[in-house]
Structures are given as C-alpha cells and as structure tokens.
Amino acid sequence: MDKQALIIGGTGIVGRNLAEHLSRCSDWAIAALSRGRTPAPAGVELIAADLTSATSVAGALTGRQFSHVFFTAWSRQATEAENIYVNGAMVTNVLSALGPTGSLSHAALVTGLKHYLGPFEAYAQGSVPTTPFREEQGRQPVDNFYYEQEDRIFDAAGQYGFGWSVHRPHTVIGYAVGNAMNMGVTLAVYATLCKATGEPFVFPGSATQWNGLTDMTDARLLARHLEWAATSSAARNEAFNVVNGDVFRWKWMWSRIAGYFGVEPAPFDGHMRPLESRMQDSGKTWAGIAARYGLAEHDIDKLVSWWHTDADLGRPMEVLTDMSKSRKLGFLDYQSTPDALFELFDRLKRERLIPS
Predict the structure, then answer these.
(1) Nearest to residue 200, comparing CAs of 211, 190, 210?
(2) Same domain, yes or no, for 193 and 314?
(3) Residue among 3, 114, 116, 190 flagged as catalytic
C-alpha cells in the first residue's frame, strides 16, 4: 500500500466513517487504535491500547510504521483542566511512539467549533467571534483542550518533520454506536420514543437555535476532507473549518425530521425543554421497543447523547461556519444536510438500531 493510516478512535463517529471511506480506496492500509470495546469496520486492523497510557500506546505501536495518523478521539473529563491534561497527553503518547520511526508524513487532528466558542464549562463566556466563523479569527482567551492538542501536534511536527492539518467540524452527522457526541442517532431514538408513546416531538433547544441559521457536518464529507488535507500539498500545515455547505433553520428542519418518522412536531413556544432531564426514564421504554422489533441494541445509553444534543440545540448564539479557505485550496465537496440525516436514519434501520 502507498499509504498506511492509523486512525486514533477508529470506531467512533468520525473515525469509523473515515475508516470506511479509506477502505474504499485501493492505496490505503488502515489500522484503528482504540480500547477495543467496539469492533472495527471490515478491512480495518484493530490495535487495542489505552490512549491515556504512554506505556500502553508505546507497547501497541512498537515496530509499527504509519505514514498518516488521524486523531478523531477525545476523552471527556470533569473539568477543562483535566480535559487539557488527558487529551493533550493522548496526542503526545501517539506521536512520541510514531515520530521517531521516521515514517510519519502527516498528522490530522479533528477538533470542532468550540475552538471559537470555548469549552463546555466556559461556553461562549468570552467575546464570541462574529459569524460565520473563519479560521483567521483565532483562539479564545480561555483554557481549551483543543488548543493543547494543537500545540502538542505543532511541537511534534517541528521535532520529527511531518506535516499537519486541523479540522473543525460543526455538529457531526454520522453512523456510530456508543459515541458520546451523536445528535443524529439521538434524534432518531427520540423520535422513535415519541412515536411509540404518542408524545409530541418537542424541540428541546433555544429560541436562537430554532429561529437562527445553522449548519452541520456529515461524517462522510469530513472523511473526504481529512483525506484531501492529508494528501494535498496546498493543505499542509493548515487549520480548516469543515461543514456540509448548506444552511438551514431548525424550525424548518424539525418538521422534516418529524415527517420522516411519522410523528407530530409540537409547536415551539420559546421555552427550552432539555432532553437530558425529560428522558431520564426512557431506558425501560426503549428496551421494550427493542424487544418488540428485534433491535440490535437494547441499552439506550449506548445510542444517545442527550447532554450533547442539549448543548448544541440550546446555544444562545448563532453558530455558522465559513468554508472559503478549503474552497480556495481545492476542496469543493458538498453534502445536503437533510439528505445526510435521512441517509443516516435509513442506515440505522438497516443495522436494526431503530425500527423500520
């Protein structure tokens, strides 16, 4: 193979879709590094290691050489200080093992729009840049583990001589199970619960998100963006926003999601009704739905991320992203966001994760 990819977090929403994309290309050999609790996609070698342990990572990668490494995983901690310590170390653990081999030509890091908004515990507390967010707007004056991860990559790139890219998607739409940040699957499960119980399909977020413009990122488009940046000289040592290329308002999208599932969208009255507090007792109902329809996953906690969906849909400010930098450098891909959601829902049915 011309290119040897190591995907850090290759079974998550971004890593899995990247692995599936690269596996369709004839010139990539692909390995995924994770704890090994979730099977890797077909054709992908799974390397099990604890990313937070330098010893574990070094042992797993001893004697291995990779031309490209893609960081698509993070470990959520209780505070941002802990996020910085743990997630920064994860990057260093991998690059300290791969850098000295001399084979590494590129490292890609997936972060997100909290680069501009700040981390969850300081969310939008500073001066949020004017939308649409542009890469030249830079960092916020708050602690942020994204910045720590970037700096670890920049330092290692200078030491070992490889190139890098940073990718900042908005909310990611994609197929994965057991992922901590997965709005598409969460909304599919929520709509299924509403249909089964007869409850109205209530928008859980803020009036700003209901009425304002927003965008999203299909994990499949992000995978193509990652490969493009890893193999394009124009994208070397650059940071990029990456979104689908269309914009929408949730007050338009919500009724379309409801229509797909055959549920009644409740009129939005301007009040936030977060899912995390309303869905605490939904596990038993979901287990009954799963048993009735022969679904593959009976544990609702392995499918949903109520807290993350609440955080995204509850934002008190407009969040919109500019893609001009990628366009100017040659990445011209586009993905319809409604199609991305409906294609994800179709796949969830095929995989027997929601009823057909």
Answers:
(1) 190
(2) yes
(3) 114
